[in-house]
Write a structure and sequence with these properties.
The protein has about 400 residues and is an alpha/beta fold. It contains 16 helices and 11 strands. The chain has 3 domains: about 200 residues, 3-Layer(aba) Sandwich (Rossmann fold), CATH 3.40.50.300; about 60 residues; about 80 residues, Arc Repressor Mutant, subunit A. Bound molecules: adenosine-5'-triphosphate and magnesium ion.
């Protein structure tokens, strides 16, 4: 969590609007490029929701490679049990799923028992569990439960393995929401997330409200740089020129702002300890950023893929979308041997699988990594100014 979360007021308001729903008609997809601030914003949504009387469950899915249907069910029940294990419901409200004369505690074991004792498919079983939990939640006078999953672009149907976890999730939530049960999905992930959802189930298009995080505005970037220093009463601050340079160099992307500012302070402390404070060379910070953030992604690309990435960078589109057509035309200009459309398409598809570019629903492409074009263009050696204190 950054010491000061800059901007994002509109996004918080959007989320708070969704919290006022009594019948859930809209769920949330929070999406954006790497390092734009999805995870920390999701973390700030949690207390907002709890304050409005919601319960919150969920996890980061990034560790869960190849989530199948049964893994997803275990995930959902385990997450749910964290909040339900202190809830007790009357035997009559279990709809006969748990045979007991006394009241029932909704711990993990009970949830699993309701699941396994319900006849039918995984979706029917999950719905039965959620129906019982829904009664318990209403008894506790809570508004509902939010299921928040970070890195949700990892979820995928896999027809070749006969595994459809994404469709299962969407089917179950659509069905229980139709019955008026207050369970809301908040899914966070890379820009491929929403198209993946719609590909799995076309109704996902109407089920989700999409909030796309972009880079911070100039004012918000300045706040992200200056407020933590002011709040900490730090004796060493940035000059106005340096603030501007950090804004320019980071492109307003929170991860880069944080990276550069940390490096500046680390370097300052080192210089101070050695008794001579000069200035922080932006060159060396850029080189470190290149090595830490970009180089790994670049090195995984093949020679021909790198040529294609280079052509895209020379389009000068910074953050904007580009088309195959544009790449083909530009490649004839900047490469000895240009690309044909089908070859470019093929390479883009491979780069998409590697998480370097993504295709939107209208067939236009973007870089999935912020400021990747600047990195590519400085491969001949960065030539950047210094940051004076
Ligand atoms: N609004 C903000 N103001 C200041 N700093 C921010 C803001 N948003 C994010 N950051 C900082 O930027 C960094 C990246 O944020 P975060 O991890 O949330 O990005 P992300 O979109 O989840 O990235 P990834 O796609 O890699 O998971 C974090 O270190 C965070 O502290
Ligand atoms: Mg994240």
């Amino acid at each position: 969590m950054p010491p000061y979360l800059a901007g994002r007021d509109d996004e918080k308001r959007e989320f708070e609007r969704l919290l006022t729903q009594t019948t859930i008609l809209e769920n949330l997809v929070l999406t954006g490029l790497r390092g734009v601030g999805k995870t920390v914003l999701l973390d700030t949504f949690k207390p907002l929701a709890i304050r409005q009387g919601w319960l919150w469950v969920g996890t980061d899915l990034s560790e869960s490679v190849n989530v199948g249907e049964s893994a997803l069910v275990v995930r959902l029940l385990a997450d749910l049990s964290v909040i339900t294990s202190s809830m007790v419901i009357k035997q009559s409200e279990t709809a006969g799923f748990v045979s007991s004369l006394t009241d029932v505690t909704l711990d993990y074991k009970t949830l699993v028992k309701i699941y396994t004792d319900t006849p039918g498919l995984a979706a029917d079983k999950l719905k039965a569990v959620l129906e019982v939990v829904s009664k318990a939640v209403t008894n506790e006078t809570k508004r509902g439960v939010i299921f928040a999953y970070d890195e949700a672009q990892i979820l995928s149907d896999s027809p070749e393995n006969d595994e459809f976890p994404l469709s299962l999730l969407l089917d179950v939530f659509q069905s229980i929401q139709r019955k008026g049960m207050p369970f809301m999905l908040v899914l966070t992930g890379l820009p491929t997330l929403f198209s993946k959802l719609v590909e799995a189930r076309t109704f996902a298009e109407r089920m989700f409200h999409v909030v796309t995080l972009s880079k911070l505005s100039r004012d918000d970037s300045r706040d992200a740089i200056k407020k933590p220093i002011a709040d900490a009463n730090c004796p060493v601050g940035f000059s106005e020129d340096s603030v501007e340079t950090v804004c320019d160099h980071s492109g307003g992307y929170p991860y880069f702002i944080q990276f550069i500012c940390k490096e500046v302070y680390d370097s300052f402390i080192q210089q101070y300890a050695s008794g001579e404070v000069k200035a922080v060379p932006l060159d060396s910070i850029t080189r470190k950023l290149d090595a830490d953030f970009f180089a790994g992604r670049w090195l995984r690309a093949t020679d021909r893929q790198r040529e294609l990435l280079y052509v895209i960078a020379t389009l000068g589109k910074e953050d904007e979308e580009f088309t195959v057509q544009e790449i083909v035309m530009k490649s004839k200009e900047v490469l000895a041997k240009g690309f044909g459309a089908s070859h470019a398409n093929q390479l883009l598809s491979a780069l998409g699988d590697q998480g370097l570019v993504y295709k939107n629903r209208w067939g236009r492409y973007s870089f999935a990594v912020p400021l990747f074009d600047r990195f590519i263009l400085r491969q001949d050696g960065p030539n950047a100014p210094e940051l004076p204190f």
